[in-house]
Amino acid sequence: MAFVSTTAFRLTKATKATTSSGRSVTMMAEKSPSLPFLDRPKACDGTMGAADVGFDPLLLTEKLDPKWLQESEIKHGRICMLATLGFIVQEFVHLPGDVFSNRLATDAFNQVPKEGLMQIFLFCGICEFITHQGKVTYAEQVEDKGRTPGAFGFDPLGLGKDPAAFKKYQANEIVNGRLAMIAIGGFIHQNWVFKTPVIEQLTNLKPMGPF
């Protein structure tokens, strides 16, 4: 554990305060709700929404802008929710042509023509440029202190009309995004190891070895 920062993994932190009577008392720092054996990071004080559970063991919020980090999490969560759904759908639905017929998502990716991948990456870049109003660097993005992370004005169902309900939806999105990030990682490695589509393996479970 010599390579791990002792600051990031400190177990307790005592602070001193003086009472009205002049007595000095020792107060223990608040613990992280998600990692109760660590102190709660200063930036993760619950002000960033209901999904803020004090999880920052590497103390990234002390080095980078917390709102920028939260937006990165929201954006990656959204991408992974779409990717998780896409992994399952493409097992059963395909575009016409042999190049799109592979049911194994990781192999199907390598069959997509180079021009097709370039179009996808170009589309993603244009979306980034437009939604951030041309501010593409970290320094430019953190300048706007009043911007709400992940808010791009996209609400076709009008879920934001009720502020109380909308806060719940925001927390649900972040939590489901976190789950999707774990899920897509599992899907990809499952495809690499077993060479079997996700649903097919799920419906035909077999022992991993001679037990």
UniProtKB/TrEMBL annotation:
Q: Which GO terms describe its biological process?
A: photosynthesis, light harvesting
What InterPro entries would the database entry show? Chloro_AB-bd_pln, Chloroa_b-bind
Chain sites annotated for binding chlorophyll b 1: R78
Q: What is its main location?
A: plastid
A GO molecular-function descriptor: chlorophyll binding
Q: Which domain of life is it from?
A: Eukaryota
Q: Which Pfam families match?
A: Chloroa_b-bind (PF00504)
Q: Where does chlorophyll b 3 bind?
A: N176
Gene Ontology terms, cellular component aspect? chloroplast; membrane
Q: Which UniProt keywords apply?
A: Chlorophyll, Chloroplast, Chromophore, Photosynthesis, Plastid
Localization (cell): Plastid, Chloroplast
Where along this sequence does the record place binding of chlorophyll a? E73, H76, E173, R178, Q190
SUPFAM superfamilies, A to Z:
Chlorophyll a-b binding protein
Spell out the protein name for this chain.
Answer: Light-harvesting complex protein
